[in-house]
Amino acid sequence: MNRRAFLAVLGGGLLAAPLAAEAQSPSKVPRIGFLATNSPAEYQDLREAFRQGLGDLGYVVGQSIAIEHRWAEGRAERFSDLAVELVGLKVDVIVATSSPLALAARSATSTIPIVFVTAADPVGQGIVAGIARPGGNVTGFSLLAPEIVARQLQILKEAVPTVSRVAVLSNPANSYTARLVKETEVAARSLRVRVYPLALRGAAALDGAFSTIIKERLGALFVLFDPVLLGHRARITEFANKNRLPAMYPHKEYAEAGGLIAYGADLRDNFRRAATYVDKILKGTKPGDLPVEQPTKFELVINLKTAKALGLTIPPSLLQRADQVIE
Question: Which stretch of DSSP H or E encloses residue 117?
Fold first, then answer.
């Protein structure tokens, strides 16, 4: 090869190198699979909290990191297919927004790291081997703390001392529901309250539960933690308010939708914190070495506007303890 030919080849190579690097750069952007129980509208604030968490760590969605969203629209039969779909895309991490989705993702892959955000009982549900050392490819954030249900029922009784017959809405599709119902019954006995568990097997069962509450003339509503029920919070709070039922809900999102009182872990805080685990995993930490984190922030939210509409006077002592009062 003569000198002129050599320089031509070298020059062409130098020009091609940046183009090749630019063409390869998108493949180097890590991709997160975001697997959600409900619809995009139901997760607007939570998804934004997760993106904010990523932003705090220096990531820019669409530039330095990508997110593949999959929405189950509240249909449990879609969980497995959506998890398999994300595995097929070879995402770097899967963020599962609920316990059932974490189980579906774990069944779909034993290699892609999985971070769950709102597991109720991750060990009891078989998602992880232990809290301190989860093992395998799954870790994340728990949502329920010991005696949370007893505390919620106590607050409801404090807000409305005359409450004596309470409807308890739950989703039996989740394995932890039976434990929550049992804890509610134990707490109710100490407070001299009678509870009526109503198991909801799908959205269609809501109307039947509502009819039972009216027929049995139950005096209050108590909603247990469940991602699917959260997706129907507008219908649930509307029913309670229309029928003048004092109600306790597990998350502030219910109170923001018009519910009377909510007490529980801050969902948005969990989603923000989930970004830190995604970051650690992308930097090389094994998910099985990251301990499952317990809730760190609980919120008492009282919707005073709803209380006034129901003709209720919330005790000043309870209002003073509230983290947020909606007026």
Answer: strand 114-119
What is the C-alpha radius of gyration for the chain, rounded to an integer number of angstroms? 24
Closest CA to 273 of 122, 134, 136, 115: 115
Structural domains of the chain, with CATH: 26-144+267-297 (3.40.50.2300), 148-265+299-326 (3.40.50.2300)
67, 34 Cβ separation under 8 angstroms: yes
C-alpha distances (whole Å) from 108 to each of 104, 111, 178, 182, 297 are 6, 9, 26, 32, 32
How many residues would you count in the chain? 327
Where does 191-225 have alpha helices with state H?
Answer: 205-215
Q: Could you report the per-residue pLDDT of 192-222, keeping only the tens digit for each?
A: 999 999 998 766 789 999 999 999 999 999 9
**pLDDT per position as a tens digit, 273-290:** 999 999 999 999 999 999
Determine how β-strand 298-303 pairs with β-strand 261-265: antiparallel
How many Å from the N-terminal Cα to the C-terminal Cα in the chain? 83
Among all chains, which residue has been given the structure tokens 């530039």?
63
